[in-house]
Input
Amino acid sequence: MTHPPDPFLTHILACHTAPPTPADTLLLCNDTPIGRLAPEIIPHLKTRLPETPRGFSIPSGPALTTLGQDMAAEGLYKPHNELFDVIAEPGGPVLGQIDRGALPLLGLLAQGVHVNGLVARPDGLHLWMARRSLTKRLDPGKLDHLVAGGMCAGTNIQTTLTKEAEEEASIPPELSQTATPVATLCYAMYRPEGLRRDILHCFDLHLPASFTPTPADGEVETFELVPIETAFALVRDTDSLKFNVNLVLIDLFLRLGLFPAQQAQTLRNALATGRRLISIP
Output
């Protein structure tokens, strides 16, 4: 008799569909590999960048911004008009900037912040969940974290957390700055927008029961406070959450001890492989 697959592991593996291989076509900046190129972008780079034995070379960091602008002008992606810093490896120096929408086409690393909004009530631990706006270009209408957002150029983890908390949920800085760092999760996956190599900086934010988040920038339709058991069931039984939110919540459930020991170890091991997946061979 076969057993159904672990639905939590299924969510993790769905974000681990792009392992690095020696056959990857790379983008290099000053001989430093910085990106794993999505196959559909390769023909467009042949007329723009010199080829190398490993892929394509861009001469400098500032040229990345121009490359992104050129690709947008050609209609290869819809620009966000929001620059992100480009790094070659986690914690590495900033090499240049490029429009957020170009990151997956060039397989560049992106960084973001995810915040578990937690409330301790007499009837147990609860989690604030956001419903993404129907106008979002990625996963519209899906469930999301209380606060989540990418790191724009020139910002760091803490400033991103404070900014996103205020803009998305009207959380004042004196409250958002009490958030505790709990994990750094990584994944590499193919999506319609290209190859995502993402680093998620995860936090727990314990909120008073008297606080109610309010959408402020139009990116969230509504917020709902749910028992942690309900959040657990949503991840286990549905695909109603934005893809990477599942990973952060699985990490939360692990830290809360909600899995049997053997299953917990399997899930921890699976999450840990994400660090390898974002590497460049």
Notes: The chain has two domains: 7-17+110-277, 26-107. The CA atoms of residues 48 and 67 lie 8 Å apart.
